[in-house]
Amino acid sequence: MKDKMDDWEKEGGTSPLPGASHRRWSDFDFLRPKEAIRPRIYLSLTAFSVVTVLLGWIVLTYGGIVDEMFLPSPTTLLKTGWHLFATGEIFPHIWTSLYVVVVGFILAALLAVPAGILMGSFKFVEALIEPIINFVRYLPVSAMIPLLILWIGIGDVEKIAVIFLGTLFQLTFLIADVSANVPKELLQVAYTLGARKRDVTLRVLIPASLPGIMDNLRITMGWAWTYLIVAELVSAEKGLGYMILQAMRGMQTDVIFVGLFVIGLLGLITDQSFKYLTIWLLPWSEKASV
Amino acid sequence: MAKKKLVIENVTKRFVTPKKEEVIALQDISAYVEESEFVTIVGTSGCGKSTLLKIVAGLERPSAGRVLLDGHETWEPGADRGMVFQSYTLYPWLTVKENIAFGLRLKKVPKREIEEIVSYYLDKVGLKGFDNYYPKALSGGMKQRVAIARAMANSPEILLLDEPFGALDAQTRALMQELLLQLMEETKMTVLFVTHDIDEAIFLGDVVYVMTARPGRIKEEIKIDVPHPRSPDIKMTPMFLELKKKVVKLIREETIKAVQQSLPTGK
Questions:
Q1: Domain for residue B267, yes or no?
Q2: In A94, A226, B57, B128, which residue has its Cα 20 to 30 A from B85's Cα atom?
């Protein structure tokens, strides 16, 4: 939102166009691509769309147009939410889901980051693992769930394996790309400063890849959430996906909606954490800006 | 006669394109740089001048011929041949100070000494007080000044510069040329400088090598007998303009050749 305001000011705000003093920026020139609009109008449009959705929800539910069984009213939703948190009923589900996602994701990252860096910059590693990764990358991990259940069972370990396999290959591939795109001149200049191969890898290639690695961790984390819910919908004893599935069986639409909100919120929190982690850990990066 | 610091001996570079066509980028190039001399190589784009510099740096291998530094054949890149590239190659994760110290740290120079060397060169390139800035906060001209300081701080035997001011605007470029010239007059460092800018080549060089279009060969070696220190005013003197006329003519012939080569032959 702040950028929009800045754009407006950068482009001269309400000052007249040069050479056409009788003309002013039109307030309603919406159809000119990539053009800034007044911040007041921008905010109004945003508010308008949010209010419309809320109003639609209110009218549909309180107006009795849609059955509570399909779409709970705002008050029901708040009540159910309050109940689930106040009684602590929802916490074991949240912990289980968080635990599975975080462990599975960290394990995948621990393997994918070094593998990706090597694959992107060393032809012999690329030759060794790229064909395998390119094949497995296109296997949807959801298709592997039955196999994983047969092999491992339906506990947390199976779901950790789903997250692990679901993100490992994608992440390796993405990080290989980051590593391959580190400008060769950055490495060459190190050689002319007296660096050996080892120095070039440790002191140039790896730090130069870090911003891209953080970016891709952030993106893949989003996918990890999706895989988790899929895995929990198939088989689980606890977790937010499981809670939603149980709610469906009991026709508790309100609980489903609370579950969806919580999942969305957790996703948003993890995403923002990555953003601030970048600012904190890589303040030098072009990407480290609020 | 001064000692020959760097000798390029019959260097040829061939490579094979993905279409399996053999291209001769450099053909039988011989040139030399004397101790404390500033030599420039000027040529049209695509004539292989950057490749030649990379061969001297040891970053690429010649198909034939060799490069001698102080009489010894070079095989690999090393700290004795410092290089500055046209693209910005500062390490964004290191501050200005740490960038300049990069080579010194690799050499395990004592900390106190590193501090001294870094602040000496920071001062020399006019960036005192920018020690702790990250490169992302610097302008293009400032980045290249740090890159020059980083290469010089390592006290190489020869400094290789590959169109270091190519990405800068004309005004900044002129200032950078003066700065570089002044630095070299003071430090007496040996320099091999590649550019496509004729003014730059003559203004900076003690000797200018003019290269032909692909395959790159040395077309002419021109001694620039303009005494040091040189001020930018010499760019307006009849002597400078005479030299420029000569190089422009040579380069023009080559540019026309290069354009004709790139036209479809109609086969």
A1: no
A2: B128
Give me the pLDDT at residue A1, please: 47
Asked if B84 contacts B161 with a C-beta cutoff of 8 angstroms, the reply is: yes
Residue ranges in B18-137 assigned as alpha helix (H)? 49-57, 96-106, 111-124
Q: Which residues of A fall within a CB distance of 8 Å from B78? A: 191-192, 194
* B78-111: b (≥16 Cβ within 10 Å) or e: bbbbbbbbbbbbbbbbbbbbbbbbbbbebeebee
Partner-chain residue, chosen from B54, B91, B136, that has the shortest CB–CB distance to A204: B91
pTM: 0.85
User: Cβ separation of A190 and B59 shorter than 8 Å?
Assistant: no
Contact B59 A188 (CB under 8 A): yes
Contact B207, B37 (CB under 8 A): yes
Q: How many domains does chain B have?
A: 1
pLDDT band at B241 (very low <50, low <70, confident <90, very high): very high
Q: Which residues contact A61 (CB under 8 A, 6 or more apart)?
A: A68, A71, A72, A73, A74
Domain ranges of chain A: 16-66, 91-281
Strands B158-162 and B22-34 turn out to be unpaired
Q: Please check the confidence at residue A10 and state whether its pLDDT lies above 90.
A: no
pLDDT of residue B267: 43
CB pair distance less than 8 Å for B78 and A189: no
- Each residue of A101-146: pLDDT tens digit? 999 999 999 999 999 999 999 999 999 999 999 888 888 888 899 9
Buried b (16+ CB within 10 A) or exposed e, A193-232: bbbeeebbbebbbbbbbbbbbbbbbbebbebbbebbbbbb
Domain carrying residue B200: 4-262
Residue closest to B257 by CA, chosen among B219, B226, B200: B219
CA dihedral over A105, A178, A119, A114, signed as positive or negative: negative
- Distance between alpha carbon B241 and the CA centroid of its chain, in Å? 23
**Which amino acid makes up residue A12?**
G
Note whether A194 contacts B154, CB cutoff 8 Å.
yes
Tell me the CATH number at B84. 3.40.50.300
Closest CA to B228 of B6, B1, B43, B36: B36
Sheet of strand B190-195: strand arrangement:
B81-84, B158-162, B190-195, B38-42, B207-211, B218-223
- pLDDT, position A35: 81
Rounded to whole angstroms, the Cα distance separating B167 from A141 reads: 47
**Residue B17: per-residue pLDDT:** 87
Residue B153 included in any domain: yes
pLDDT in tens, A230-265: 899 888 889 999 999 999 999 999 999 999 999 999
Measured between beta carbons, the chain A residues lying within 8 angstroms of B118 are none
Distances (CA, A) of B108 to B78, B96, B149: 15, 19, 18
Spatial contact of B159 and B192, defined as CB atoms under 8 Å apart: yes
Angle of the A145-152 helix axis to the A206-234 helix axis, nearest 10: 80
With beta carbons less than 8 A apart as the criterion, state whether A151 and A137 touch. no
Asked if A215 and A238 touch (Cβ cutoff 8 Å), the reply is no
Residue B224 carries which DSSP code?
-
